[in-house]
Amino acid sequence: MTHASLGRSPIESPRHGRLPTSSPAAAVLKFLGLAVAVVLVALVTTAGIAFANLNSQVQANAVDISGGGEAPAAPPLLGAFPGGFNLLVVGTDNDPNQGDDFGERDATLNDVNILLHVSADHKNAVVVSFPRDLVIPHPECTDPTNGDVYDAMSAQPLNEAFSRGGLACVSATIENLTGLDISYAAATSFKGVIEMTNAVGGVPVCLVEPISDKDSGLDLPAGISTIQGDMALAFLRNRHGVGDGSDLARIASQQQYMSSLVRTIKSSNTLTDFTKLYGLAQAATQNIQLSRSLATPDAMVSLALTLKDVDLANMVFVQYPAGSSSEYPNKVVPLSDLADQLFTKILADEPFSLDADSTGTGSTVVDPGTDPTTVTPDPSTETPSAPDASAAPTDSPATPEVIEGLKGQTAAEQTCANAFSD
């Protein structure tokens, strides 16, 4: 597989306005990728009444991401999808549904980009979070809503893609970067965050130390707190109070949230509680734009059924490998060798595992039953760099190959956020 390389030409003048890096609003969507997938799982048991009520709304907002290519095969009626698939979830800022509560911006940006891959045997899943400031080549894009054509660009931040053709262009850009075929996609604004969190009854999060951050409004003690409503919003958009204050540290917090959300869904009665399920379905459909390939009850149920039985230990959350570059200040660039290893595994549908030092910047792994307030925070807050090529994998025949240097965790692991440290 040939991984797209970073162009060397200088950054071109952007065609549209860009959200300032420091804006708290842009961060709030970091958790939504797996939340949307979990909602799709939840929809499995609401196929009757819920689909009848919500189907017309979903269809009306659907968008074509095929670029004129062949549409994916129709899924079976209320049966699991036959094989693996890739689902892209995009979180947008300045979406028309956002309102004025978070300020005005010049363009709609894809500030959250999360790819879910489910293996063909439905035993493994990988969730890849792409940094919004990742400088990469962008392909030519055609906006399916009006036919406008946007020229290819050699080196621009990933979050420019939505303004160049909406969900279809983001999908094409991620395909160009990774070599994957993306048949299913969803885009959402952050207006539904509170409603979706409330619908599941709150999500437990963990802090090694107290965090009080005026910018986001986060104010939580050390230990485990179950958050929903405004406090969930604050946790998800918090940046300056966690880790090294970087966007990569915030991604680690979002992965903690997503992992906890999955555990909450699976350990509670959510999948058999019609009130919770229908609340999740309403919150999702009112704030999500689906690709046409996904905008039917059959498609949603089919993809959801493939996720229902994935073991928590086999659901891996990873950050797309990226590091700093003097050529692009305040941005990040691909660590191409490590990214190639990751997507070679995904393309081949082969499972992999993370090494012992994989915890994301700003997070600490805590053993079940351990008091988080007694744990020493992980001091590592450096921006990731290329892994040591001489490092030997420690895998055995009983475990998947280890990809050294990836940052992330499994859904089975509990991680706790570290307070900001210089």
UniProtKB/TrEMBL annotation:
InterPro entries: LytR/CpsA/Psr_CW_biosynth, LytR_CpsA_psr
Sequence segments annotated as region (Disordered): 1-20, 357-422
Keywords: Membrane, Transmembrane, Transmembrane helix
Listed Gene3D superfamilies: LCP protein
Protein's UniProt name: Uncharacterized protein
Organism: Cnuibacter physcomitrellae
Superkingdom of origin: Bacteria
Homology family: Belongs to the LytR/CpsA/Psr (LCP) family.
UniProt signal peptide: none
Compositionally biased tracts (Polar residues): 411-422
Record-linked PANTHER family: POLYISOPRENYL-TEICHOIC ACID--PEPTIDOGLYCAN TEICHOIC ACID TRANSFERASE TAGU
